[in-house]
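Sample pair:
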Amino acid sequence: SKRRRAAAAAPRSAQTSVAHIPTQGPEVRACAAPVAPEEGERRRRRPCSPFSRAAAMSGKLRDLIRAVRACKTAAQERETIAKECAALRAAFKGGDDGGVRHRNVAKLMYIHMLGYPTHFGQMECVKLIASGSYPDKRIGYLALMVLLDERQEVLMLVTNSMKNDLLSSNQFVVGLSLTALGNICSTEMARDLAPEVEKLMGSPNSFVRKKAALAAVRVLRRVPELLDDFLAPAAKLLDDRHHGVLISGVTLVTELCEAHPKMVPLFRKKVTALVRVLKNLVSSNYSAEHDCGGLNDPFLQVKVLRLLRILGQGDSDASDHMSDILAQVATNTNTGKNAGNAVLYECVMTIMGVEAIGGLRVLAINVLGKFLQKNDNNIRYVALNTLAKVVSVDTQAVQRHRAMIVGCVKDSDVSIRRRALELVYSLVNENNITVLAKELIDYLTVSDVEFRANLASKIGTLVEKFAPERRWHLDTTRHLLEQAGEHVSESTCRSLVVLVTNAAELQGYAARTFYTSLAAAVGGDDGQAVKVVKSDQLLQVGLWIAGEFGELLLTREGELPDEEPITLTEADVVDTVESVLRDPAVLPETRVYALTALVKLSGRLPGQAARCAALIAEFRRSASLEVQSRAVEYGKIFDHAAIAPQLLERMPPLDAAAWAAKREGGDGRAAAAADLGGAAAAGGGDLMGDLLDMGGDNGAAPAGG
């Protein structure tokens, strides 16, 4: 400010302005040049040369971060980064100025983390790694792992420096090199440095041993043929007393066993040592150095349990050696903290993965049952996911937690609901289908809309597969159609039709109950205790049954002892079908079902034949081509009264076995045609398809006739 006042007071010809370049580093430069007074302020902050530009960026990393955070828009951020990158390029070209190369590379890493290109500074990493200064090496190795990957050719220039660092007497320099090798090791680098890594695995320094073991994992991934050279050092690490070396050694052995299963028998000799390590971890006193969440080194416990699972698979002797300690871990581990839950989860997976006795498996599944009682959704999801994996191993033990599993189907978390539904699907059998089906249908009415289709499909499949009797199958499927018909699959509807055609003793009952549901759906019966949701699937099935067995609606034929009687007239039945036919909200396919039902009822209810013919005639000019075609075709039947009774007879029973084979992907059509009559087979007709696809050529549900 004093300089400005002095310049203003001086004669005009003597006025000068200093183009000052502010810096934040110790090396402050200024470039002075005589300029006009009006240009002084404009050029005050502009660097005058590449050297002044380098000085402009010689500040610390925190200053660059502060400048980026101060940007209001993305454009301002790009401008700031562009200026900084230009200054960094100038500094890199000018060589190391004042020992700030590591500071510039740190800025380069930050720019890389923001997503901007930084390829121009890759060689600086090599220079820092070759430096004799530990701070430079530290930044250099870090930049090597951040800015480069194993596909970069620059790595070839680093191999010699890394080899020299592996032979260093400074453990921290060796650690830097091993860490970089474990993170960014190419195949060529692995071949060149594998002997040094193998040698360092036997180092007297525990810090170096654990780093070497982790680097060996990467080396063996890149060059598997070096496996034999690392077997003995890896096995020796499992006898180490240092926790860091142990966890690194267990990680290495686990990697070897997973990548090379033939090596598992070789390491089974170490099961006793691993059991001893785990027992010491579980029973030892408190250690502040290794305590985490009240547990003694849970990370090492998890690693050891995972390795025991691999070594115990398919080997009863090894499994017997670890049974006691697995039971001890499952019983004594505290579940109050997440660390304890992690150890218990790994213990459960180990028990279910080895040749464990039945009691130990029950204990493991009970642990998962306790997880289901937790409030943490993550733990509950893990428990459901694990139960779904082990349900095939011990279904009876999982059945004990069925109530909690069904409760999870009603959870607010959608991922838990879906996983619980898959588990329930695995748990259902002939003994519990009645209970589970009722609970699932009750929940179906209040579940989320996007969840209902999947749930309804699974309920239909379970009911069909495990139905204890035909009537229960009929009632449950009808209830499902009443509550969520729009979500019921076409396959479920077709299976119901096959059931009704084969159950002669239930045809009257089916006709009366489905007519009641049909009337309630179209608003013709308000006396239903349970509200019926109108859907095209329910209407189609109800119309098909009413058309096939319409005469049974007027009699008490086949009435069951506990069936509620109904009184109907022929006009009532036709009125209900007409209501569906004239409903503007139904699909054209459903109108086809209604027309089919009318033509069928004209032969079963003689008093309403003329009315049925008149109703069918009204739809000869329908806008729907399929409805119009069916109305014209059915109208022709009334012109041939002599053959009409034969055309309108009931459909013969459908072959349930052929239908099941067809559903499973087998070709049940030929078998169905052969069983239902040689005439149909000789005519090349698909009788099963004709019976079930009367709604049109699009493979609709059965429409009869």
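The longest helix spans residues 74-93.
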